[in-house]
Amino acid sequence: MGRVFAVRHAMPELDPVSEPHEWRLSGEGRMAAGKLRGRLPTGSCCIASAERKAQETLRLAVDDSFDVDRRLNEVRRPVEPLGGDVRPCRRAWVSGQLDSRHEGWETPTDAAARFDAVVRIPSNSQNVVVASHGMILTAWLVSVGILDEGESAALFWEALAFPDIVSVDLPLR
Question: Organism's domain of life (predicted)?
């Protein structure tokens, strides 16, 4: 049995001139990420999303070096306008209620599969620490049977903090 420690990134500084994958952590986010130090197992296989906010979170949370893997990036979707209320659309996606608002979005099944491919990478460590994002993490937890699809998944996603840690035991391959 291996354990996955999935870290949702800390709060970024919203920057209207940069793409979301380039956003840095806010000052509050850096402080919160630093408070994760000591809460994650040392000597783990550590991997961060290619998004800057996830890498900064992991760098502040662990002493270990880490790899970067784009498969941990947030759900692929068209760029959403800053300042608009994107939560209802995202909530519908994480609950599996896809509709016309999700045109051009990656499906929850596809997002979960790429996340799963990373956390199942064989390593010398029994533990894998991944720094990623809330929507893809929720889709993955549904796919491995930790969460039920629908309202349960939506409530979980809404309750995730910036940052947060979710640990899951998985059979080793």
Answer: Bacteria
* pTM for this prediction: 0.96
Question: Mean pLDDT of all residues in the chain?
Answer: 95
Residue range of the domain that includes 69: 2-170
Q: How far apart are CA 67 and CA 48, in angstroms?
A: 6
Calculate the dihedral angle through the C-alpha atoms of 93, 165, 110, 114, rounding to the nearest 10 degrees.
160
Whether pLDDT at 28 is above 90: yes
User: Do the beta carbons of residue 140 and residue 128 sit within 8 Å?
Assistant: no
Q: In this structure, what CATH number is given to the domain that contains residue 38?
A: 3.40.50.1240
Tokens of 2: 């291996």
- When divided into structural domains, the chain yields a total of 1
Helices 134-143, 108-119: crossing angle, 10 deg rounding: 90
